[in-house]
Design brief:
The chain is α/β, with parallel strands linked by helices. It has 2 domains: 120 residues, Rossmann fold, CATH 3.40.50.2300; 97 residues, Winged helix-like DNA-binding domain superfamily/Winged helix DNA-binding domain (Arc Repressor Mutant, subunit A). Helices cover 41% and strands 21% of the residues. The protein is built from 8 helices and 12 strands. The strands form 3 sheets. It has a 5-stranded parallel sheet with strand order 2-1-3-4-5, with helices on both faces. Strand 8 and strand 9 form a beta hairpin. The protein is elongated and about 60 Å long. The mean pLDDT is 90.
């Protein structure tokens, strides 16, 4: 079962921790930020991994409305729910105009919040098609079969397919080595960047017209990897 990552931006720490605990009990992963600058730093570093943001309006340093603008610049599709003590209609309208998906005023019922989070994630998360096609190549995520650039078929390992899925789901975005290892390896396995490098080299042999000058599978030195369709 996929674990969705939720960023909670709330300067009232006891409330933030209560929300986080309840989300974790529903099998969500959580990140916490208690100020505008901290939230922006976390989002910039983890935009590829965050599936939804719970965002307070009244925050130190940068308010929630301005943060919403910044988040949407980085990832226009990120779902955002405002959490705020403000209940004026004008505030709700401003939040929704900025691209927020929902607006909950404090105090709120935790069950209602969890339901809204669940519904919004179901509505906004894209299902990965079983077969991904690009440049006369194809990847079948169910059968683990690929068709390479020469038209030949091969069957890859579960981990190779997992890496291909992670990269193609985040097309044009850099995926860090740490995120890849966290998602594809167990904590007690001895994963290394070298292993991932070897997978990327194999992908280039399968899918690139010239593996030495890759068009689709890129290594970003010191950061991670990126797929361009």
């Amino acid at each position: 079962m996929q674990q969705f990552q939720i960023l909670i931006v709330e300067d009232e720490q006891s409330l933030a921790q209560t929300i986080a605990l309840n989300l974790q009990l529903e099998n969500y992963k959580t990140m916490l930020a208690v100020s505008g600058n901290q939230a922006l730093d976390i989002f910039r570093l983890n935009a590829n991994a965050i599936n939804l943001v719970l965002l307070d309006v009244m925050l130190p340093e940068i308010n929630g409305f301005d943060l919403c603008k910044q988040f949407k610049k980085i990832d226009p599709s990120i779902p955002i729910i405002f959490l705020t003590a403000k209940n004026q209609i004008s505030d709700k309208i401003e939040g929704l105009k900025l691209g927020a998906d929902d607006y909950i005023t404090k105090p709120f019922d935790l069950e209602e919040l969890l339901l809204r989070v669940s519904n919004l994630i179901k509505r906004t998360q894209k299902e990965t098609p079983a077969i991904f096609n690009f440049n006369n190549c194809s990847i079948n995520f169910e059968t683990f079969e690929i068709k390479d650039i020469h038209g030949a078929s091969s069957t890859l390992s579960k981990r190779e397919i997992g890496l291909l899925k992670l990269l193609t789901e985040h097309e044009n975005k850099v995926i860090s080595r740490d995120e890849i290892i966290e998602k594809l390896w167990d904590v007690n396995e001895n994963a290394s960047s070298r292993t991932i490098d070897n997978y990327i080299l194999n992908f280039r042999k399968y899918f690139e017209a010239n593996p030495k000058e890759p068009v689709h599978f890129h290594s970003i030195r010191g950061v991670g990897y990126k797929f361009i369709g």
